[in-house]
Amino acid sequence: xxxxxxxxxxxxxxxxxxxxxxxxxxxxxxxxxxxxxxxxxxxxxxxxxxxxxxxxxxxxxxxxxxxxxxxxxxxxxxxxxxxxxxxxxxxxxxxxxxxxxxxxxxxxxxxxxxxxxxxxxxxxxxxxxxxxxxxxxxxxxxxxxxxxxxxxxxxxxxxxxxxxxxxxxxxxxxxxxxxxxxxxxxxxxxxxxxxxxxxxxxxxxxxxxxxxxxxxxxxxxxxxxxxxxxxx
Length: 232
Description:
The termini are far apart. The longest helix has 23 residues, at about 140-160. Helices cover about 75% and strands about 0% of the residues. It is built from 12 helices and no strands. The chain is elongated.
C-alpha cells in the first residue's frame, strides 16, 4: 500500500473510533487493531501519536464540510440554501463518526488548533450564507443571526444522528431552511442592515421556493393572530 493510501486507511480507522468513543478513550493500540496493522506502523505515519491523528481527522472533516456549503449563486436564495444543506446533511449522514469527532466537543484531546479548525468551518459556512444574501461585511446583528443559525444546524445535526436520523433528511433540511428564513425576517424588523438584505433577497424568491411556500403557510396563521391587533 502506498504512503497516501496507508495514511488514509489509518485515518479512516481512527475517525470511526473517535466517532463512537471519546477521543481520550481511544489509544494508538486501538487504532492499530482497527486498521489491522502494528503499533509502530501507526507511529511511522503519525509520529505525533493520537493527538496528530485526531487533528488530522478534524481537519479532513472540516475541509469536506466547508466545500458542502459552496453552491452556485443561481436561483432563489432559499433554494441555494436548501441545496447547500442537502450536501451538508448528506455528509452528516454518510460520515456520522467523522462529523461527531469534529463537532461533538468536550474532549480533552481538543487543542487550540482543533478549536480553530472547527471555528473555521463555522466562519466559512457563515461567509457562504452571507454571500447568497449579497453581504460581504455584515454588522453585528446580521452576523450574530447567521452564526446562531449555523450553531443550530450543528446542534440539530448531532441530535439527528443520535436519534436515528429521524425525521427524514428532507424534512430536516426543509425545517432548517424555514428556521433561517424566520430568523432573517424577525431580525429584519429591528435591524436596518438585515432589513436591506431581506428586501434584496425576498424578491428573488418564487411561490414554490422554500421562502415562498413558508410565507404562504404563515398566512394561514393570520386569522388566529388577528385578535392581537384588535386589542392593540
